[in-house]
Model the fold of this input.
Amino acid sequence: MVCGLSLKTKLSLVAALLMIFLSVLVTFYGDIMYCMDRLKVRRMIRQVSDMSVFKIRGIYAFPGRWPYKDEMIKLLDNMAKSGFNVILWYANEDGQRAYYKSKFYPYAPSAPRDVDPLKVLIEEAHRRGIKVWIWFSFMGYRDLVLRHPKWAAVYPNGTSVIDKPYRPWGADWYPLNPAHPEVQEFWEQAILELVENYDIDGINFQDDFGYIDSISYDYINKAMFEKLFGIGIMRWPEDVLPGGPLHKSWVEYKCRVITSFVKRLYRRVKSVKPNIVISLAVSSNLQWFRERGVDWVMLAREQCVDALTFMLYSDNTDWVVNETLRVMNIIKEVNPNVRVIPIIGYELRDDPPSKWIEQAVALRKAGVEDIIVFWARGIDSIKGCWEAFGELFSSMRRSAQS
Done:
């Protein structure tokens, strides 16, 4: 019958069929791509099916997105089902608010009033075999610096962060002066509050100690610098700014301040809870981090931490692996007792599960024994990502047990 149709009618019919086909393709495109990605994931997993599973399988989580117990349980269930065994929980988010009962930070408005979220988290996590590491920020908050104005960090022009808050991501932050003895005491007591009152398994320090983006040019730092090096600064702060004759020494001074403080924290915390894991999140770019006062080589050499978690956020898997191996070799030479743990994820937030698994598989094949993923919300937003990690870890776990 079709043969008897006119050319115009035939073309209209073909066009209609083509539109139907395209409509079906568009409708099921996501499902098709998802199935193809699942096959890709399974092929990659076979590459490490004869290897032992990662020892530390961590994931960062922001408490602000699940203030209620049912959401917390959902996250922990996803972690347990997928094989993650450490949650890094942002207990004092950006140093602005606490998701636990604290004497040092204001209680988060979104947190429940009838229970202590951190105690619930720890109980539920431990019930599922998941360890809890506190992700701790050293940033200050406005009420704190208003009560203690001398604690506030200072810009090179003498302006305090009280008058000009630090705004890296649009929000107002209030860095503290890490050299001020009272600031160090505040941080120490805030951390001991967590260690003594909660059954936590580890602490992961954020890298925001206060020496960031041309901040902390105050007279306490000036006096301590001059005492350390036995010199007087003729032009303050010009001589220590980038390009100044004393800038290199200034960077060294900042690193010594932070290293000394972290060592003090390490010893104090270990005296209370010897088995707790103390770690610090860092960048693999050592020179850039030294400008911020954080020298992870110095920290490892002086055993200020048990682990360094390297933020290796990139969609370039070769770079992630090569950077991990590079810093592992550096730390091995300095102090083989310090673990190097790569953190992957953030830049993969728009990628399918196979990209996340690609990096995990490549790292394990390279001999890396621990991994942390940033972050729970990112995995939540990608269909099949939890399941992909579950397949990876369970496959490796079976081979390790067989």
Summary: The longest strand covers residues 56-61. Strands lie at 56-61, 86-90, 131-136, 202-205, 277-282, 307-311, 339-344, 370-373.
